[in-house]
Design goal:
The protein is of the alpha+beta class. The chain is built from six helices and 19 strands.
């Protein structure tokens, strides 16, 4: 009678402390979120189909993401390139007068050594495309500066003539296929690529400068701005000139800018009485691929510890305490393809173990970000992933016996008993 409750004649079933693992897979789609509350699929909260009880582990299963990202964007803060015009071509130095060239000299002299900022179009580029984009953008920036000067000095006829002749066209940027570097050139004036400009300052240093560009939330010594992707360091680079008239930069592997140029990609403009050109080569190879991975955060499931970029501060120089982050993310996902495409994968180490099991999980908050804290953006493209829940269901203690008909058929008997 020890198993009988005094209030009922039904026997109590003993707790066997035995559990069966039941696996549930939940498919989550970004387009199923409350779009009014979460207009961006980068960060949202969503309710699961049911309560998941006694959860022992949660694992990231298969996932799919669209590869439609922009390597260069306002959010990444890598659209702007700062430069100065140093020794500006002056026709008077060659003892002749050209009306438009004289206007160009006077206009650019108003901002002698002052910074210009050229802005490229957001998107994803091939090496040849970025070289063409930079050529056109650099010339456009100087054209706009000269146009403002002519407008401010009330010279509409010269302004119309200048625009009809195509504006400023002395810059040329070319890609060296063999060295995988970019070469910047000007056919008549020297210039400096200002990689130390305040345009590329860290977030805590930027102040009121460069508000059109989004700085990184963490110090970044690798992808700190457009020059870093083009192959520059943070040091300014001043253009150099050919020392011998008639000897100009050349690529020896074949044609460079156009068919039949035999590798001579820059020569003095024949409209300018000048025998010198000015060039800058990036010290490192071009990098147009962007981030190679991003992090998925899920509130309550994060278990990845993440290092932070080194900061040369009093804290790091006087202590041996890490500046990394504990439980910063749930999964680290590799970007395995380039735009425009879709990638699928299930190879991940992302798993959260609960001990004791989590009593109940019903809602999750998801966030996608890069290592530097910037958000991952997919625009209007949806994405999806699976979460695998392992739940523990308690089992009743039962005795059982098995019968083996095969053993009996050969003249023997076999049985086994056990508990369940």
């Amino acid at each position: 009678m020890s198993n009988l409750n005094r209030q009922t004649s039904y026997p109590l079933i003993s707790n066997a402390n035995e559990y069966m693992i039941v696996q549930k897979v939940v498919s989550i789609h970004s387009e199923d979120r409350n779009i009014k509350k979460y207009p961006s699929a980068t960060q949202f909260e969503i309710e699961l189909p049911e309560d998941y009880i006694n959860v022992s582990t949660v694992k990231l299963g298969s996932y799919t993401f669209p590869a439609n990202y922009n390597t260069f964007s306002l959010e990444h803060g890598n659209l702007g390139l700062a430069f100065t015009m140093d020794k500006i071509y002056n026709p008077a130095d060659y003892e002749y007068y050209n009306e438009l060239q004289d206007i160009i000299f006077n206009a650019l002299s108003q901002n002698q050594d002052g910074e210009y900022v050229t802005v490229i179009t957001p998107g994803f580029y091939s090496p040849l495309q970025i070289a063409t984009e930079l050529t056109n953008r650099l010339n456009e920036t100087i054209t706009n500066a000269i146009s403002v000067y002519l407008n401010d000095t009330n010279q509409p006829e010269l302004l119309n003539k200048f625009i009809l002749l195509g504006g400023y066209d002395q810059f040329i940027v070319i890609y060296n296929d063999v060295k995988q570097t970019l070469w910047f050139g000007n056919k008549s004036s020297s210039f400096t690529i200002k990689n130390n400009s305040k345009l590329y300052a860290f977030k805590d240093e930027i102040g009121q400068i460069g508000q059109c560009f989004t700085p990184s939330s963490l110090p970044d010594f690798s992808n700190w701005g457009l020059p870093a992707y083009l192959g520059f360091t943070r040091c300014p680079v001043q253009s150099t000139s050919n020392t011998i008239p008639g000897v100009y930069p050349r690529f020896y592997y074949g044609d460079a800018a156009e068919p039949g140029d035999n590798g001579y990609w820059i020569k003095p403009d024949p409209n300018y009485k000048n025998k010198f050109v000015y060039v800058v080569e990036t010290p490192a190879k071009i990098n147009l691929m962007g981030n190679s991975y991003f992090y998925m955060e899920i509130e309550g499931l994060n278990n990845i510890d993440e290092t932070n970029p080194f900061e040369d501060t009093q804290f790091t120089s006087t202590t041996n305490i890490t500046n990394g982050r504990i439980n910063s993310a749930f999964a680290k996902i590799a970007v395995s393809t380039t735009p425009v495409s879709q990638w699928y994968d299930s190879n991940t180490e992302a798993i959260k173990i609960f001990n004791p099991p989590a009593e109940r999980i019903r809602r999750i908050k998801v966030k996608l970000r890069y290592h530097d804290g910037k958000m991952v953006t997919f625009g209007k493209f949806p994405w999806s992933f699976n979460l695998i829940f392992n739940t523990l269901q308690p089992q009743q203690l039962k005795s059982f016996m098995t019968y083996n008909p095969i053993a009996n058929s050969v003249g023997g008997t076999s049985s086994a008993s056990g508990k369940r």
